[in-house]
Give the backbone structure.
Amino acid sequence: MEEETSGFRKELVSRLLHLHFRDCKTKVSGDALQLMAELLRIFVIAAVRGVWQAQSEDLDVVNVDQLEKVLPQLLLDF
């Protein structure tokens, strides 16, 4: 049975990318969309870890310090 994971749909990733393309005719392959979706998923996980880090420090706001503390794990995810 295939493991079900939540992530970003390819259509959403494509729209996000096309918002920043200078040439509206730019095309993105399916593999590139899948890779970008995975990168976005990992960055969201890192942001959540940053929130957990801030909460463990009794802070109300996540800042660069908390993200720097979870950066090693983010790099290991790649």
